[in-house]
């Protein structure tokens, strides 16, 4: 191989660009992780989150909520009273085996829609 100053400069530039791209990818991943960990806080007096086949639903319905002033991805929702009906099937009208009542729970959700006093959370991470 014959390394010329121009060839060495090109190789150094390629390595620098590659390193910068890797660092940018890492920073983006760290930023996304920080966004999920540093979620905006919301508070709800009561909520219901069905449990299907042993796993909680990724959707939750709540009432009496105080929401952050800005919409952002990922919310940490503090709930005073959370009802979790345990369904025996995966059908909405199926029988409920029992209902678990939890107090002072926190659930992380991706977003919400609001209709009057009702807030429907979606993309909630199972506990």
Keywords:
127 residues; alpha+beta; eight-stranded mixed sheet; 26% helix; 45% strand
Descriptive overview:
This protein is an alpha+beta fold and 127 residues long. Helices cover 26% and strands 45% of the residues. The chain contains 1 helix and 8 strands; from the N terminus they run H-E-E-E-E-E-E-E-E. It has one helix at 5-37; strands at 40-48, 51-52, 55-56, 60-66, 75-87, 96-109, 111-115, 118-122. Strands 1, 2, 3, 4, 5, 6, 7 and 8 form an 8-stranded mixed beta sheet that branches. A hairpin with an 8-residue loop joins strand 5 (75-87) and strand 6 (96-109). The longest helix is centred in the N-terminal third of the chain and has 33 residues, at 5-37. The termini are far apart. 14% of the residues are buried.
